[in-house]
Amino acid sequence: MTRFNASRWVRSMAGGVIALAIGAGAVGAACAQSNDSGVAPAGMPAVKQSGDVSYVTGGVGLDESHALKAAAPHWPVELLFAGPGSDYLSDVHVDVTGGGGSVFHATADGPYMLVKLPPGDYVVHASYKGEEKTQAIKVGGAHQKASFRWNTQ
Question: Is Transcription regulation among this UniProt entry's keywords (predicted)?
Fold first, then answer.
């Protein structure tokens, strides 16, 4: 007759949980960064630069959308662009100002944009088909998410 050893089972399960946690952390870190060659993990668009600011944009297609959503918590700023009926938009012109001037400027390749801004107070200006929307954000500590919605398709 086989005897159940509770302490051995608990140690075995704890080891499995730790391995899963380490693996999940490695996947999250991989989603947040590209490698030295500038190639991003599968599904993740390549990281770009605008001056001293790193960013990634996209989300057209399911793989890209999932990769960006998974990586978002690892970036200080997440921007989302949508039209009527929550239709996702691209070609949104983004300008971030702070400290008396523009600190970031780029055009979104899809509905998601992740931006690595240094800590500070900023205003995000997002323009789509000539209509500008603005939101103030404070970077530092918690992940910031700003959604912009237009009535124009």
Answer: no
